[in-house]
Amino acid sequence: MKEKELPLHLREDNLSEETKTLISSLPLSKDVIGNLYNYKGCWYYPNTLQGVLNFEKGFKPQETDIILASFPKSGTTWLKALTIALFERLKNDTSSDHVLQTDNPHGLVPFLEMSLYLKSSTPDLSKFSSPRVFSTHMPLHTLQLPLTDSPCKIVYVCRNVKDVLVSLWHFRCAHLKKEVDMESLFESLCSGVGSFGPIWENVLSYWRGSLEDPKKVLFMRYEEMKSEPNAQVKRLAEFLGCPFTEEEKEDGSVDKLVELCSLRNLSSMEINNSGKTFNSVPYSTFFRKGEVGDFKNHLTPEMENKIDMIIQEKYNGSGLKF
Ligand code: PAP
Question: Where do the Sulfotransferase domain residues begin and end (predicted)?
Answer without folding.
Answer: 64-319
